[in-house]
From TrEMBL:
The active site is at 139 (proton acceptor). Belongs to the protein kinase superfamily. The keyword Transferase applies. One of its GO terms (biological process) is autophagosome assembly. This is Protein kinase domain-containing protein. There is a cross-link at residue 141 (Glycyl lysine isopeptide (Lys-Gly) (interchain with G-Cter in SUMO2)). Residues 17-268 form the Protein kinase domain. Pfam families: Pkinase. SUPFAM superfamilies: Protein kinase-like (PK-like).
Amino acid sequence: MFCCKIKNTIQSSTRNYQLLDEIGMGSYGKVKLAKDVKSKKKYAIKLIEKQKMEEFHAENNILSEIRIQSKLHHPHIVELVEYFEDEKFIYLVQEYCSKGTLRQEICKRRLLENEIYHYIYQLNEALIYLHRQRIVHRDLKLDNILLDENDTIKLTDFNWATKITSYAAEPTNCGTTHYMPPEIVLLQPHTEKVDSWSLGIIIFELVFQHRPFEGLTQEELQKQIIYHNPLTDCKSIPTDLIMLLNCLLTKNPIYRLNCEQVKLSQWFQRQHHNSFLQADESVNLTNITYNKNDNI
């Protein structure tokens, strides 16, 4: 469906949007805050430049993103309200999350353990919903987790998402290297457990405030992912949380937890039972010591 663009507004068949500030940047264009001229409701609109999309041969990715996200309806997944196009752009109109990304949130302060659980529980619920439909996100990272005004997380960016129609997805190099599991790095067939690995990376990052695998070069980073164990010397962290991280960052996906199993983990169960505690009663993880130079 085509739109008519007038000055600083764009119009679909159902709404007229006024474009406001730029709030993000993607591989193929900008993300802008917009306001429905009639209702005054705010949205985030992804402006995908057709020229860039063609340069990167990303047409299939964009079409897949639209096809998958338009069918998703979950409280912890960003809603794709509508999409339309003109001669230069494809516009994806999505719900607006006013508090930005989870990465921006943890840059402000260190989270308490119960706050980490608050976010991870919601993210895991979104993943269970996806995986029950055989959809794998394949690009989980703090930058793709948004927060609305109620501190509710919303998973976004389904550019690398795919629907698995057989036992496993075909080998492909997808996602962001720091969050890739060994099977993606090694270009092996993969299942929804690639998202379990990335969930483990995110939990690690929320706890330690840095990523578990680093490298000066892409090759060095990939070797770290394949061979390094980042959990050999973690002090002052609850044992059940270490157990969960170990089960998520297992190199062999056969032995890695799926998201349904994550919900049954000891750490999840303890946090669920303690959810009535006030924030100041939660475990403070600021005194954790971690030696990232330790190898297997």
